[in-house]
């Protein structure tokens, strides 16, 4: 069975940094991807933030985090890290890690935008709070 566990959330001031970690166990090869999503306070939708494909190494960032967030992976540990710098109040929310088997990029392109592909396995979420 695939299990996804994330950690690393917390409370920081505007401009601060946090690093989130996500470990996905249960995959037997490198044909999978891990993505990060944010659910804003009171929001119902989980918005894609970043993802990385272990299959081809491709990486995606939402426009709102480009230049501030960095996603990286430790293949041996099946762990992905999301380094979040220059945090803003808009970054506040519950961050969910998700994983699924897939080959190639963790995104697809439709009508001018990139979207993260479907994930079947989700972590429990970790709270990130940015105060001004």
Structure, explained:
The chain is 0% helix and 55% strand. The protein contains no helices and 13 strands. It has strands at 3-7, 10-13, 18-25, 32-39, 47-53, 59-61, 69-74, 79-84, 93-101, 107-110, 113-116, 121-122, 126-131. Strands 2, 4, 5, 6, 9, 12 and 13 form a seven-stranded mixed sheet that branches. Strands 1-3-8-7 form a four-stranded antiparallel sheet, with no helix packed on it. A hairpin with a 5-residue loop joins β5 and β6 (59-61). It is globular and about 45 Å long. The mean pLDDT is 96.
Defining key terms:
seven-stranded mixed beta sheet, mainly beta, 132 residues, 0% helix
Number of helices: 0
Give the SSE order as H and E letters. Answer: EEEEEEEEEEEEE
Distance between the termini: 41 Å
* β-strand number: 13
Structural class comes to mainly beta
Over all CA atoms, what is the radius of gyration?
Answer: 14 Å
Percent helix, as a range, is under 10%
| Unreliable spans | none
Shape: globular
Described by strand count, sense and barrel closure, the largest sheet is: 7 strands, mixed
Average predicted local confidence, pLDDT: 96
Proportion of residues in extended strands: over 45%
């Amino acid at each position: 069975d695939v299990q996804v566990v994330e950690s690393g959330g917390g409370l920081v001031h505007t401009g601060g940094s946090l690093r989130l970690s996500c470990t996905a166990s249960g995959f037997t090869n490198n044909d999978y991807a891990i993505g990060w999503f944010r659910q804003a306070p009171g929001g119902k939708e989980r918005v894609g933030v970043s993802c990385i494909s272990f299959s081809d190494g491709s990486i995606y960032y939402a426009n709102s985090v480009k230049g501030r967030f960095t996603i990286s992976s430790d293949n041996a540990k099946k762990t992905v890290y999301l380094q979040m710098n220059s945090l803003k109040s808009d970054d506040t929310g519950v961050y969910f890690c998700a994983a699924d088997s897939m080959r190639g990029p963790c995104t697809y392109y439709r009508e001018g935008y990139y979207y993260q592909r479907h994930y079947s396995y989700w972590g429990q979420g970790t709270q990130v709070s940015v105060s001004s």
